Amino acid sequence: MKRAVLLGMCCALFGACGEEGAVGMDAGVEDAGWPMGSVELNISMGEDPCPVATATVTMNAGDPSRPVPSIGPLPLNVRDGVIQGTTFIDVYASQAWWVQVHAYDSNGVNVCWGQDPFMTVYEGRVTRVDIEVGCLWPHCP
């Protein structure tokens, strides 16, 4: 009986992990009655980017009339040193989200950074945010 329960739990966990990439990353947990939207994150690394191994995104809402929980830091995919964009679903509708992207080298040093301090998420809509990531000197060659 214990083996069957354990096997069922493992299958459920592995199955849930496999769904994430198909529809985007679940940034928040939908609350009953709170309006939700989505965020399409597009990242440009500019000219002569630093070598990037990992990256994260953090989102903080700055609307004091509608305080909502912060999101992240969440990992972003990095392919061949380039940070990949993604779509976050179930983001609280709010004004003045501050979106920050941090990129790290293979030693964990923050080598690049970019932001959008004024993003607004609208209920039931996809908000596009474009962030240009710049290198942080003196960490880059």
UniProtKB/TrEMBL annotation:
Protein name, UniProt field: Lipoprotein
